[in-house]
Specification:
single chain, 82 residues, 41% helix, 35% strand, alpha+beta
C-alpha cells in the first residue's frame, strides 16, 4: 500500500492510499477510523479521489458517522461497567 497524500482537514486526519487497483481513503478522528475503497475503474484518477474527499456532503456524513460511532462505543462501554 502506497501513501498518495495526507489531505488537510480541520476535524480529522485524511490519508489517501493506492493499493491493488483501488484508492483507499482512511479518515481518523481520535480513536475512531473510517475506510472507503474506491475502484480505480470508477474514477478518472487521483484528482477525482481528492474531489470526493473535498465534497462537503460526503465529509458531513463522515463526521455524522463518527458521532454515531462514538455514541455506540460509549454505550457499549457503559454496559461493561454494570
Amino acid at each position: 500500500m502506497r501513501v498518495i497524500a495526507q489531505i488537510p482537514h480541520p476535524e480529522c486526519q485524511v490519508t489517501l492510499f493506492a493499493w491493488n487497483g483501488k484508492y483507499i481513503v482512511k479518515i481518523e478522528r481520535g480513536m475512531l477510523e473510517q475506510t472507503y475503497k474506491i475502484s480505480e475503474m470508477d474514477v478518472s484518477g487521483e484528482a477525482d479521489a481528492h474531489l470526493i474527499i473535498g465534497d462537503e456532503n460526503f465529509m458531513r456524513g463522515v463526521m455524522h458517522r463518527f458521532s454515531e460511532m462514538d455514541t455506540a462505543l460509549a454505550q457499549a462501554m457503559d454496559t461493561l461497567e454494570m
